[in-house]
Design brief:
Elements lengths: L3 E5 L3 E7 L2 H6 L7 E3 L2 H10 L4 E5 L1 H11 L3 E5 L6 H11 L4 E2 L11 E7 L5 E6 L21 E5 L7 H15 L3 E5 L3 H6 L1 H10 L3 E5 H8 L4 H8 L5 E5 L5 E5 L2 E5 L13 H14 L4 H15 L8
Parallel strand pairs: 1-5, 1-9, 2-7, 3-8, 5-6, 9-10, 10-11, 11-12
Antiparallel strand pairs: 2-4, 7-8, 12-13, 13-14
Helix pairs in contact: 3-10, 8-9, 10-11
């Protein structure tokens, strides 16, 4: 039987546009970077480009898409407006069999959007306007959406004091009450720096699974080396999954360290989504009760496939 997973994260529409190097210079954009922009900047940039492709994005939404690609049963909750981009977002998920469990309503802010500028050298430069996506609240979560799931996957990007914290706590409360396991991705090293104590407390008290890359994990534990981090995390008796790019991945589980090599590829086109797809492969196998080594191997396989194409969807 296919076990169900619910992802909760930022609902961001990815908008793709090819531009030349001059466009980046003229708009003061640093090639290869991700910049948060406000509503005014978003509309200004939007006027200057030709949109070529629109996809439902966001880190955890990408993971849910990966699980669906592996024929898993994935669902997603993220906040969108009932505007044109919101409709496109919803349809883009439904087209790939990811159940979208959020009731759209008319909002003051537009649906969150990430404009992805692709230069002739295939490099991507991103400008993200979070819009209404960052306003996901406890009121947007229904226990009915959690009750029949095996696992909830939360996004570190969403964590903030106040409204977001309440939403996280609500999801965890519903999860625990219904014996649903809780997993989280650390999302970004800057995210970890900002919320280190909160993330550590979540790991200690609430999470069953934590996924992060080597830099994020070292930041979380205030360690200089991965071995130091591992020694600090072993006693927590949690499943902690650490990705290391071409050095492979590992899991800390039942006081053991399980290593896995990366899958070698001949040409890397675009690393966007590698972590999201690794999480998809890992969690899909975990839901199927596979051993941890197989979970890591499937994660690596999916990550290796996504870095050989443009975009975060297989």
């Amino acid at each position: 039987m296919n076990k169900k997973i619910l992802g909760i994260g930022n609902a961001i529409v990815d908008v793709f546009s090819h531009v030349d190097e001059n466009f980046l210079k003229e708009n003061n954009l640093v090639k290869g970077s991700m910049k948060l922009i406000n509503e005014e900047e978003f509309f200004e940039l939007n006027k200057k480009i030709k949109i070529e492709k629109i996809l439902a994005g966001g880190s955890v939404a990408n993971s849910m898409a990966g699980i669906s690609h592996l024929k898993g049963k994935a669902f997603f909750v993220g906040k969108i407006n009932s505007d044109e981009l919101g409709e496109l977002y919803k349809k883009s998920l439904e087209d790939i069999n990811v159940g979208f469990l959020y009731d759209q309503k008319k909002e003051l802010q537009p649906t969150g959007t990430c404009i992805i500028f692709i230069t002739p050298d295939s490099e991507r430069t991103m400008c993200t306007y979070l819009g209404i996506s960052s306003q996901l609240s406890a009121d947007d979560l229904s226990e009915n959406n959690i009750i029949d799931k095996e696992l909830i996957f939360l996004e570190g990007y969403l964590w903030d004091k106040g409204q977001s914290e309440k939403m996280f706590k609500q999801a965890i409360y519903f999860g625990k009450r219904n014996k649903v396991k809780i997993a989280m991705t650390l999302s970004d090293v800057f995210c970890v720096t900002r919320h280190k104590k909160d993330f550590y407390d979540l790991l200690k008290n609430d999470l069953d699974i934590l996924i992060g890359n080597e830099n994020e994990i070292n930041e979380l534990t205030d360690s200089k080396t991965l071995m130091d981090s591992i020694n600090k995390l072993l006693y927590l008796k949690k499943l902690i999954v650490i990705t290391r790019s071409e050095k492979g991945s590992l899991a800390i589980y039942n006081n053991k360290i399980i290593n896995c090599d990366s899958v070698k590829v001949s040409k890397v086109l675009d690393v966007t989504g590698a972590g999201d797809l690794f999480a998809a492969g890992f969690l899909k196998e975990y839901l199927e009760k596979s051993n941890i080594k197989k979970c890591l191997m499937t994660g690596s396989m999916l990550a290796s496939q996504i870095i050989q194409k443009i975009g975060a969807r297989l």
